[in-house]
């Protein structure tokens, strides 16, 4: 029930919960600790969940990168909680972002290209409508390139479009007269 409020906190806010998760919002880390003297529960363990409130990274951005003269780069990023995915269009070619990461306002966007086996990884920081960072190019010619992008379309993360959780009453069957409780 508190998840929507927690997601409105400042990006980077840390949240810890004992024995209660947040449903669809998967924790960044989770520990299971032995608790042999725990008075409740059948498995005598305690679960500790940890989240970091993510920044809104959902956008379409046009990047200015040192990929070559006249080469435009367009990032399309979709977000659900701290999970991001999308694709990168360089010129006329489009590449899916694989194993993307989002940590507060920092993102890693790796994507392989089909040209000569090269792959690139955008690493950057989100600040308002700007994304800045570096592109690491892997073999055949490894290089570190600077890039910056302007968000041309802001979006709403998928988790903000979810209906709010509803507290449901537990249905208790009616007892017949004379039945033990």
Describe the fold and architecture.
The chain is mainly β. The chain folds into two domains: 3-53, no CATH class; 59-160, Lipocalin, CATH 2.40.128. Helix content is 3%, strand content 47%. It is built from one helix and twelve strands. It has one helix spanning 3-7, and strands at 14-18, 29-34, 45-52, 59-65, 73-80, 83-90, 93-96, 101-103, 106-112, 119-127, 130-137, 143-154. The chain has a nine-stranded antiparallel beta sheet with strand order 7-6-5-4-12-11-10-9-8, with no helix packed on it. A hairpin with a 5-residue loop joins strand 11 (130-137) and strand 12. It is elongated and about 80 Å long. The two termini are 31 Å apart. The mean pLDDT is 80.
Order of helices and strands: HEEEEEEEEEEEE
How is the main sheet built?
Answer: 9 strands, antiparallel
CATH class of the largest domain: Mainly Beta
The unreliable regions are none
Strand order of the largest sheet: 7-6-5-4-12-11-10-9-8
Shape annotation? elongated
Determine the strand fraction and express it as a percent band: over 45%
